[in-house]
Design a protein that fits this description.
mainly alpha; 4 helices
Length: 87
């Protein structure tokens, strides 16, 4: 099955937006705030996974699994350098 990298990126962008919204603090009572930390972290992880998979797909690879470190290892050295430089 062939995957469309742009569709992967669009889905990653959606997870990133969900994470950003979950990180927002909202007042839940006098002097109390609520932040959806766990959903924010999970959505961020999903977004990173999908961005890695999009890069691998663009580079002609076949991304499988959910381990972020393993996916990062599958990215070309040039792309890894670009990612690290952008951090």
């Amino acid at each position: 099955m062939e995957y469309n990298p742009q569709m992967i990126i669009n889905t990653a962008n959606s997870f990133l937006l969900a994470a950003e919204r979950a990180y927002e603090q909202r007042q839940s009572g006098p002097g109390q705030f609520q932040m959806l930390l766990v959903p924010a972290v999970v959505s961020t992880a999903f977004a990173i996974e999908l961005y890695f998979k999009a890069i691998i797909t663009i580079e002609g690879g076949n991304a499988r699994g959910h381990a972020l470190f393993a996916l990062f290892q599958d990215i070309s050295e040039n792309s890894k350098a670009a990612l690290v430089a952008g951090v």
